[in-house]
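SEQUENCE, STRUCTURE TOKENS:
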Amino acid sequence: MNAPFIKICGITRFEDALAAFESGASAIGFNFYSGSKRHISPQDAAKVSGKLPDTITRVGVFVNAQRGEIEAVRKEVALDVLQFHGDEMPEELSGYDIPVVKAIHIAKANQLESQMSYAVDAFLLDSFSPKEFGGTGKTFDWNIALEAKQRGKIILSGGLTPANVEEAIIFVQPFGVDVSSGVERSPGIKDHRKIQEFIAGARRGFDIANNQLASASQAQRAQR
């Protein structure tokens, strides 16, 4: 497996971003979709971003945004990764010179077919909602995530909490995990203790999953 990737999304305040960094998060996410409960303006995101160390990855979340808008926000906020949650077509996600993540909202397994047409750096698997583009707080069938791994690098999301993230990582063994509502007191306002517990649980999960992979690899070599 790759090094653990742990993202705290829906950041709206500097103190929450700092708590994520100090707790060991790999990345934070800023949601620029105006219809989101966790929306943040590019100006406010830039203020938060400018106070953070360069070692934490800054991810911008967009929904059906125009390329010109995306590029402007990217420069203003100093984004490292672009994450798309809307109805963007594959060609709309090409041509960027930083990593691109496409969210797949899982309602049933056959939705994975849509992954095949996107040439992106990773897929974020989230729960489907007819009313929201993510942040539902609901899980989906993790067996679908196992199938998705065969088609590309995945970041597991959707209903993850400090209580289930370790189990989820051990079961799916994803590239990374992403949480928003699972570490909140209210939409956009993070609970710092939950952030700490989530990251600790994620690290335990990744450690166990890595050990399992290493043991399986050793067993395969021994049989040759």
Notes: Residues 192-223 form the longest helix (32 residues). The chain has one domain: 5-223.
